[in-house]
């Protein structure tokens, strides 16, 4: 079970989600998820995972070259 967020951690999370909301254009009524945070956290988790996988791939490509 995870620990509850502190007031400061929750405030930081809220601020980040709001920033991402506007960066994604969810304030635009034409956006498919307009006026919601639905799926936004999952999209960021996917982005972070893909970036980590790219780091690993790049490392091994550099180590192995064209083998």
Describe, in short, the structure shown.
With 67 residues, the chain is mostly helical.
Characteristic terms for this protein:
single chain, 67 residues, mainly alpha, 2 helices, 0% strand
List the helices and strands and how they pair.
Blueprint: H1 7-23, H2 40-64
Q: Which quaternary structure do these chains form? A: single chain
Number of domains: 1
Structural class, from secondary structure content?
mainly alpha
Mean pLDDT: 93
Gyration radius (Cα, Å) is 17 Å
As a percent range, the share of helical residues equals 55-70%
- Please report the distance between the alpha carbons of the first and last residues: 44 Å
Q: Please outline the major beta sheet.
A: none
Walk me through the structure.
By secondary structure, the protein is mainly α. It has one domain (7-64). Helix content is 63%, strand content 0%. It has helices at residues 7-23, 40-64. The longest helix is centred in the C-terminal third of the chain and has 25 residues, at 40-64. The model has no long low-confidence stretch (mean pLDDT 93).
